[in-house]
Amino acid sequence: MSIPHFKKYIASLRVAEGKKFSLKKFDTAYNPKGIDKEEGLRMMQESTLKLAELQDKLYAQDKYSVLIVFQAMDAAGKDGAVKHVMTNLSPQGVRVSNFKVPSSNELDHDYFWRHYKALPARGEIGIFNRSHYENVLVTRVHPEYILGENLPNITKLSDINDAFWHSRFKQIRRFENNIIENGTVVMKFFLHLSKEEQKNRFIERIDNPSKNWKFSLGDLKERLLWDNYQAAYEEMIAKTATEDAPWFVIPADNKWSARLAISEIILQEFSKLKIQYPQVSAAQKAALLKAKEQLLAE
Ligand code: ATP
Ligand code: MG
């Protein structure tokens, strides 16, 4: 992070709370100025190693937890980003959860239920690949899904109005505030992909036999609703970007620079935490020395 341009670039990806937010003002393609791919890969390696050190302390201290949320359109690179963040982490202290279409059992509970159960324990890093935000995104584009939740007072499509979405945004802010106040650090990433690049990646998934499994015809149907999704993302980010649970809009057309930005932001957010190895008291230290004496005397 010695390059001033880069620091500024990273800062520009954070969405300010309460300000007017327009997704169009955020780039989908960007190569950080002054950094080529080789330099970028070197920086990433450094930051994933630093992150591993921090994770070790987080785990030992057992006081805080970290929740990293990834949201994006299909093929924006969520899986790759998750894999990248994990590079040097100890699997013991990380929980990755992928959230798909809810099961009937999940629909029988409030929408936070499955996410709450998947939250990281103290000392852990939790990664949500899709998240509680789907409940104001895919359901916003397909409001009929909400009827499947069997909510009180929501019996027809016209009940799912602006007031309904506003109360969901409020519920999400409340949910995040509660976990933050109890020791979880929350950071949220939107991988911002262009429609053109999604097309290229879909074609690649069709052309490359090892990627065929990643493509479903349903993805094409959702692509037709591109503008509806962008509008849903825009309002969701505007309403849920807070000082303590920030959204970062990551240009995602270029994979390595997206991963670099994510790494650096995670490190930056982590560094705000007071994490350290547990301190040993004088009495505990004396007991340790006594134990050593005993071992040496064997
Ligand atoms: P890729 O980007 O590689 O396609 P993916 O995350 O889209 O990966 P899929 O199995 O293709 O994984 O899709 C999961 C699907 O589950 C998405 O279409 C998503 O919108 C849907 N989903 C997730 N949460 C909910 C929810 N609460 N209600 C309805 N649908 C949901
Ligand atoms: Mg998909």
In short, what is this structure?
It is built from 13 helices and 5 strands. It is of the alpha/beta class.
Low-pLDDT residue spans: none
For the sheet with most strands, the description reads: 5 strands, parallel
Return the string of H and E elements: HHEHEHHEHHHEHHHEHH
CA-atom Rg in angstroms? 22 Å
Small-molecule components bound: adenosine-5'-triphosphate, magnesium ion
Mean pLDDT: 95
Give a count of the beta strands, DSSP E runs of length 2 or more: 5
The shape is globular
Kindly report the spatial arrangement of strands forming the biggest sheet: 2-3-1-4-5
Q: What's the number of helices?
A: 13
Describe this protein's structure.
Helix 2 packs parallel to helix 12. This protein has a 5-stranded parallel β-sheet, with helices on both faces. By secondary structure, the protein is an alpha/beta fold. The termini are far apart. It binds adenosine-5'-triphosphate and magnesium ion. The site of adenosine-5'-triphosphate (ATP) has 15 residues, from helix 3 and helix 6.
SSE blueprint:
Layout: H1 4-12, H2 37-61, E1 65-72, H3 78-86, E2 94-98, H4 104-107, H5 113-117, E3 125-129, H6 138-141, H7 144-147, H8 162-181, E4 184-192, H9 195-207, H10 217-223, H11 226-240, E5 247-251, H12 255-271, H13 282-296
Parallel strand pairs: 1-3, 1-4, 2-3, 4-5
Residues 74-75, 78-79, 99-102, 130, 134-135, 138-139, 145, 214 line the site of adenosine-5'-triphosphate.
